[in-house]
Model the fold of this input.
Amino acid sequence: MSTESSRRRWLTGMAFLLPNIAGFLAFTLVPLVLSFGMAFTDWDMLRHNMFRHEPLSFTGLENFVRLFRDPQFWRDLGNTMFLLLGLPFAIAGSLGAALLLTKINGRRQAVGPALVVATLMLVASGLVLLRGGMAEQGVWCLFGTLAASVLVAGVLSGGTVYRTLFYLPNFTAGVATYVLWKKLYNPHTGPINFGLASLLDGVSSVVRTDPRVVGYGLPVLCGAVAVLLVLWQLRRLWRRWDDADTGTAAIVAAALTLAIPLALLTSWQGWSLPVAVGVAALGAATIIVSTLRRPRPWGKTRTLDTGLGTELGLALVLIPVLTLLVGGIILGPILPAQAAVGIDPPNWLGDYGWAKPALMIMALWAAIGSNNMILYLAGLSNIPPELYEAADMDGASPGQRFWHITWPQLAPVTFFIAVMGVINGMQGGFDMARTMTAGGPAGATTTLSYLIFIEGFETGRLGYASAAAWVLFVLVFVFSLLNFRFGNRDAND
Amino acid sequence: MNATPPSPPAAARSLGLHGLMTVLSLAMLAPFAWMILASLKTLAEAGDPAWLPRSAQWDNYLEVFRVIPFLRFMANSLVIAGWVTLLQVFTSSLAAFSFARLDWPGRDRVFFLYLGTMMLPGLVMVIPNYQIMVRFGLVDSYLGLVLPSAFTAFGTFLLRQFMLGIPRALDEAAEIDGASKWRVYWDVILPLSRPGLVTLAIFTFMGNYQSFFWPLVMMKNVDKYTLPVGLLFFDSEHGQATHLLMAAVTMSVVPLIVLFVFLQRQFIRGIQLGAVKG
Amino acid sequence: MKRTFLVCLLALTVASTLLHWSLPEQQSAAPVLYWVTQNDPVKRETTALFRDWLVAQGLPPVEVRIDNASQQRTGTTGEPKELIQGVSGMGGDLIDIYLYQMELFQATGMLMDVTEIARRESFDPSVTYQAINTDIVLDGRQYGFPRNADVVMCWVNRDTFARYGQPEPPARWTMDEFEERGRRFVAAANPPGSRKRIFFLNRVWPSTLRRGLGLSTYNETATRCTLDDPRNVEVMKRIYRWTVEEKLIPTIQEQEALAADASGWDSSFSLFATGRFAMLYEGLWAIIRLRPKGDFRLSAVEPFNGGFPNAEIGCGVVSVYAGSKHPELALQFLRFLASKPFNRLVARSGDSLPVLPSAAKSDDFHPRDHPGEWAAKDVFAKAGREIGIAASKSAFVLPSIVFRADTEAIESMLAGRMTPEEAARTTANRVNSEIALRVRQDPTLRRSYEERVKIQQQIEARRAARLPVPASWISDPFHLTYYRAHGWLEKEAAP
Done:
């Protein structure tokens, strides 16, 4: 291979690239370069088009300066980042689904009979339901028969049916999904709140039987779990630090991870923001200082960024979990009073606090059985069975099998999914917000891509929109670099 | 993977597993059940909270064909998505081979540039791209929908990751036998990347069958509309014909499910073959 | 694998050839006009009627093809399809324009100025409701003709009021009466412990409330946003009270979320028909959706006001694309919109008010098979003639930006993140800084802005001296009506 001259190798490489790169140049690179140039001009669709040819003027960095001064930009950046927090759950969900499907896979593959049986059951129950004209109970009958059909078909087909059903949300991806979920979330007529209302009535009556137990018990329970979690993380950190598995940057990241829920706790308690941030900063500083003061390990070296990837990954799980626990602490004392008048289910898309979680729940639903699951399935079937056989001979537990074989073997796939997830996540939310909430309430679901849409197609300021897009580009780029730096290392182990 | 013979606890575990899968499947299925039930309602019932229609309006499905040329839209969508898939799989696999297997100066920099283009939000490129289409005279043509989607960095990235996982020993052996680069690509790498190719084909086909914004902007002639654009016919100034829309969406999903069920068998078998060979 | 590939290639080639070959003949004997609109039964009937009308006029036939574009009737967002095609020279010959799109499209220069020909062919603003002039005339030039007009009023489900033993609202009422009656209604309709909340009204429209108190979104010359005003704070406080404290209406966020796409209306109509909303704040077109909901008794009343009765009137406009290849034929279509046959079609379909006020008196407006809705329809037609005022818009800021700023501020207030005072100030500041930016960037706009600012100063000086003001100075439709009603205008020449 190395006998060829460098020029010849280049030519061969390019020859293979040519079909793709020709189209790529025409349809991606040209618009890309154009939009970069336009980010430094006052390009405005209203004044620069085939009917109005006013001179385009170069405005230097003005668009960027205006963008960074715009409070809307910072709010939308925050929203985008918040929605991105759903990504680790989505990845974990896809992996879990793929693992479960592989467990079932391959016993029996009678797809044909399975479909016939399931169809017959469904048709029969459908006829009974539609003829019988049952009202509310009909739905439960329907779900009963659905469950039975799925089970029978699943057992007969050995996974094929489950795999297809899990992938179902992808068949109507896009606007249809959003319209559908909007109806599901409707606070007055949607089925979600229809079900939740009776559930919450039950909760209310339980709380009413002994308000004090819940009022004090819930905060104490959540608090205890949170403290245990924090202690576990600290112990883990210190141990890793002593083993030189963790560098200074990772410690700082971990400390910030723990500080964010603390800041939330204090600010939700009604403390003013500076105080809350101050308390959190103090907590973070304590963790950092107490770690750095620990004795240096013997004969081991670590660099600044050792273990940073692990801590960042862990942070993505720790922050939401701790935030939920903090929510529990806050909720406890309020609950009895709420229960006395009856707890209302959330007004999902219309409530400032619930709108983002509502979108994230929908995204999670769509993401579990998504393309990521397919990639994991492909990755899982590519793991050589000999590896597991060897582990079984060593008497490895299922957990050990996962952490020492499956997870490292899947690293390239996870890497791909994470990179694409970040790219799509940072650019996403536009169709979703536009269809479901129009960016509201009070801008709670306006993402950066929606800002770009508004500036580009509502106000016509394409120069400004391009500037926003290139800022977003830089952000995604930095995230991807981090991902490459810390994710790829594991992938190459 | 699970080599233990079935014993009572294993059977119980298997049943539990199936139970869990059923529950999860139902969660995925529920919105579709709602969709199909909504397609059987009357317009007046469309906004009601009840799931079940008072009596099933099977006529809605026939009405869809009366309101829009459904089959024409579907054929347009299928053919456009098909061409995009074919071109995408072919050109991406060539490019991925170049990035994963050939050693040429500047390769990794070019690859990162490729990857970087995915990081710019596509929205700002819509206007320049449309102008290019006007320049080439491709507005309101099938070609104008196929070409811009057929060459993406995504496919190249995906297939490169797959090809990196194929042991190098295989193509080195072929080269020692005197095979040219093209032979290595066509006879060694391509057959071994089959799961990757099928995966990319599924993703591309799904994505393009459902793509909405670009076809909406590009097409003027109703007979060339794709299905997602055609579904706009059920939105009017006076609100939405939800019952017909849901019937049309239900029907539009059918080819995708058929394709998926067919391809996933291909795709599982492909992996098994690949594993045996590798 | 490779065989699969080749088979696919072959199959696709065959399929594409078939598709291409089976395309219906595009060469039409008659010239073709593309109409960018929505493909609903009324529009399809319209194109057929146009062909007949041309023949009846002794003109050569033209084929109008509908290009389906708009997913959002609300028009709160500039529809990208129309914009992208329009600025690239590929727009449809006829373009439908909704609420907030006129300013955007007009600014790009893609709409044809039809002022002279409209006057000659008598489809100028004088033939339709006077109140909607500002929707088709910008800066003295006409850019299209409406195909229908609509007033937003309160639909009343009389059965719901009867069910809870509450009196129906009067034809004209004040905010205080609304609050008083609403409080009594929700108390009667929501006994303690009931889970399904029953609301008095589905939503409110802030600008109508502000106008009732004599406040417009802009000043007289539309050069500055005036929402940082105690009267707006008053409106904000009322909205807060009605939604959060008294729960007379569901939260506005919820209503916006429901109405953000076409599907959102379904549930509003269902809830109104089933009595969950006692009243529905909507245009006349709502009867198209209410008819199939079955038997319930309907009536309509004016929106409650803060002293100055008013209702918002708007219209769906059709404009001619400046890059059209057949401008003369497209203009025929506008002429058709002002014709009797078309207006009778609108009157019959229930698709809002016909633009010729006389058509609302014809028999078509009172369809024989729906006698129950005649009275309500007459209330709408009367409101259109008497209290309808078009939306306030400014040439110096796009309406969509103002709408967004206002909505976000109200939503922030309802979510408890802003006080009413802060909300009022935030909206005004956002809009005014947007005006400043737009004027700075666009030299053409800057000149007319400076002229208007001078006029504004003159108006204020005259008002301070209690002198009458010439009507031509005032561009804001609300101020014009308000000044006229209070006798603050100089004597106008009889039209």
In short: Chain C has a mean pLDDT of 87. The domain at 32-148+314-369 of chain C is CATH 3.40.190.10 (D-Maltodextrin-Binding Protein; domain 2). The longest strand of chain C covers residues 311-320.
